[in-house]
Design a protein that fits this description.
Layout: E1 13-18, E2 21-26, H1 30-40, E3 46-48, E4 57-63, E5 75-78, E6 84-87, E7 93-96, E8 100-104, E9 109-114, H2 123-138, E10 143-151, E11 158-162, H3 169-178, E12 182-185, E13 188-194, E14 197-202, E15 207-209, E16 218-220, H4 222-225
Parallel strand pairs: 2-4, 4-9
Antiparallel strand pairs: 1-2, 1-3, 5-6, 6-7, 7-8, 8-9, 10-11, 10-12, 10-13, 13-14, 15-16
């Protein structure tokens, strides 16, 4: 008699690829794992069901009431939007985001620990996961930059729109998209050097735009709402 094994819970592991780099994601906390999978669905990462090679990057997401201790006497500095970075002098680092700790080891292994289970849409969830993924990708030649990216009609070269948060990158990008421009992202790009040419890829697939006077940003995918072309 053939025995069929039935799984009523999602696997604790998942694989994604971006620009030829393979990411391995795991979490024994299935609630946290589901949050990460839902978050990654809004990023330009390609799910991989059966990878044929070892991953380049391993990221583990955990939840613990007591945060991992950071070694003493490390060099440190403040980071944008709150938090602190600690460098161990051997290419590893710790990012203390308050409620989440990101630990990047020397071999592109990353651990992200939350003191409490975040809710979907919690900025801390996206911030910690983004830091973890982008910090590891830098080890493999992909560098993130806070910038929008668009491509003009009937053109091949892209245009980067760079500015601090709140400067209007997303609003300008949306206006160009409505005017027929293609887009990569409204907020964050991944840059790499290929045969002496800089290539840019979008990192986040959705736009986050706030109307005048509104404190909360509206999130949507122009490809679905406006029929715009993502490149």
């Amino acid at each position: 008699m053939e025995v069929i094994q039935v799984f009523d819970r999602p696997a604790p592991r998942a694989f994604y690829s971006v620009a030829g780099r393979l990411l391995f994601i795991e979490s024994l906390d299935l609630e946290l794992r589901n949050l990460i999978v839902d978050l990654f669905a809004g990023w330009q990462l390609t799910p991989v069901s059966l990878p044929d090679r070892l991953p380049d990057i391993r990221i583990s997401f955990t939840r613990a009431e007591t945060q991992q201790s950071i070694p003493r006497h490390l060099d440190s500095f403040e980071i944008a939007e709150g938090g602190k970075c600690y460098i161990d002098g051997r290419q590893g680092l710790y990012l203390d985001l308050g409620g989440a700790l990101v630990h990047l080891e020397n071999d592109s292994s990353v651990t992200v620990s939350f003191t409490e289970l975040p809710r979907f849409g919690d900025p801390l969830l996206g911030r910690a996961a983004s830091f973890a993924v982008c910090a590891a990708l830098r080890r493999h030649g992909l560098f993130d930059i806070h910038s929008a990216g668009v491509v003009g009609p009937e053109r091949e070269n892209g245009v980067m729109i760079i500015g601090p948060s709140g400067s209007g990158k997303s609003t300008l990008t949306l206006q160009l998209v409505k005017a027929g421009w293609s887009y990569l992202s409204d907020d964050e790009l991944l840059l790499s050097l290929v045969d002496g040419v800089v290539e840019a890829r979008g990192f986040r697939s959705f736009f986050a735009v706030s109307e005048a006077g509104a404190a909360i940003k509206q999130c949507f995918e122009p490809e679905n709402v406006l029929g715009s072309k993502r490149v």
